[in-house]
Amino acid sequence: MTTPTLITVAPTGAESAKADVPALPVTLDELVETAKECEAVGASVVHVHIRDAAAQPTLDLGRLRDTVAALRANTSLIVQLSTGGSVHDPEADRLAVLEAAPDMASCTMGTVNFGEDVFLNRWEFIVDLHTRMQERGIVPEYEIFDLGHLWALQRLLDKYGLPAGGHVHVDFVMGVPGGMPGTTAALVACTTALADLPAGTTFSATGIGRATLPVLLASLSAGGHLRVGMEDTVTYERGRPVESNAQLVARAAGFARLAQRPALTPVEARTMLGLPA
Ligand code: KMH
Ligand code: ZN
């Protein structure tokens, strides 16, 4: 039996500048329009970073609340807010993201070098995020930048219990300079390590930059799900900038159909991820 494919779109991120990537959605209107287009071609989850009036990354709570409301009003997508923010965001602001009451939120499972920067995720901070999400009924997506992060997740679940909804879903973020590479071998190492996590744990994978296609194909063939979007990839093919997030989602959905693992609808995705209908 084949498993349909969960497609998450990560449309904006915190790293690219609007001046360098004009197609990047940075206003609420642009984000909502992108989300609608991506849902129409196969996305079921939207992983959200927002920008301020100057198109700079922000974790402003009012803007986050407005964003959750607008995405819910205009799409059926599962709204996943980033608690990773940008590498410069303080822990308190990252924790406060949960006050915007999304369906899901990201929870990165360890510190990782991030290009020239450091993406800091202390153990106590991870425990705080995990337990606050449990209390609020927010379903985490555990972000795995390196193999050891899976071992940290095993420790977290052993000590503090399963997430809200009882289902464990991880996302392998591959090809960040400082993290694991975006290769089939690294993906296989991660999927092998999943054997130590609760039965039924699901995974998606995304490759940064030129790792996009190798990771997408490896994940599909390994029974995994997909994350694509301009947070991770701004070049569609050599010398050709991405025109829109929907272009990336459509390509992912096309590969998923070829693999006879068509895209899940948001309703089906809710069931898989342990979210209320
Ligand atoms: N922007 C990165 C520092 C997440 O969204 O949780 C962190 C990130 C992970 O994108
Ligand atoms: Zn992110």
What would you note in describing this structure?
The chain is α/β, with parallel strands linked by helices. The chain contains 9 helices and 14 strands. The protein has helices spanning 28-40, 61-74, 91-96, 123-136, 147-160, 184-193, 212-221, 245-258, 266-273; strands spanning 7-9, 45-48, 50-51, 57-58, 78-81, 104-108, 112-114, 117-119, 139-144, 169-174, 202-207, 225-228, 235-237, 240-241. Helix 1 (28-40) runs parallel beside helix 8 (245-258). The mean pLDDT is 98. The site of zinc ion has 7 residues, from loops.
Task: List the defining traits of the structure above.
277 residues, alpha/beta, TIM Barrel, eight-stranded parallel barrel, two-stranded antiparallel ribbon, 9 helices, 14 strands, 37% helix, binds (5S)-5-amino-3-OXO-hexanoic acid, binds zinc ion
Short characterization:
With 277 residues, the chain is of the alpha/beta class. The chain has nine helices and 14 strands. It starts with 6 loop residues before the first strand and ends with a helix.
Write the layout of secondary structure elements.
Elements: E1 7-9, H1 28-40, E2 45-48, E3 50-51, E4 57-58, H2 61-74, E5 78-81, H3 91-96, E6 104-108, E7 112-114, E8 117-119, H4 123-136, E9 139-144, H5 147-160, E10 169-174, H6 184-193, E11 202-207, H7 212-221, E12 225-228, E13 235-237, E14 240-241, H8 245-258, H9 266-273
Helix pairs in contact: 1-2, 1-8
(5S)-5-amino-3-OXO-hexanoic acid binds next to strand 6.
